[in-house]
Amino acid sequence: MKKPIVHHAIWRKRMTLLYSMMIGMFAVTALMAGLYLSLLITACGLFATEIFYR
């Protein structure tokens, strides 16, 4: 039985886009509700993720 071909580069681009849109929706919702500290905490988490996983 053949395994399906997985295109890693395309998968990575799509997941990056999906994650970016999810964070963007959270940021817009937080701004509308005035939750500025949550944006700071999210930005710190994104920064840490970028440092550790690159």
Question: Would you kindly provide a written description of the structure presented here, covering whatever features stand out?
Answer:
The protein is mostly helical and 54 residues long. It is 80% helix and 0% strand. It contains two helices and no strands. The longest helix is centred in the middle third of the chain and has 26 residues, at 8-33. 0% of the residues are buried. The model has no long low-confidence stretch (mean pLDDT 87).
Please sum up the structure shown.
80% of the residues lie in helices and 0% in strands. The protein has 54 residues and is mostly helical.
Topology:
Elements: H1 8-33, H2 36-52
Shape call: elongated
Tell me how many strands there are: 0
| Rounded mean pLDDT score | 87
The residue ranges in which pLDDT falls below 50 over 5 or more consecutive positions are none
What's the end-to-end separation, in Å? 35 Å
Broad structural category: mainly alpha
SSE ordering: HH
| Beta-strand residue fraction | under 5%
Q: What gyration radius follows from the Cα positions, in whole Å? A: 16 Å
Quick tags:
single chain; 54 residues; mainly alpha; 2 helices; elongated
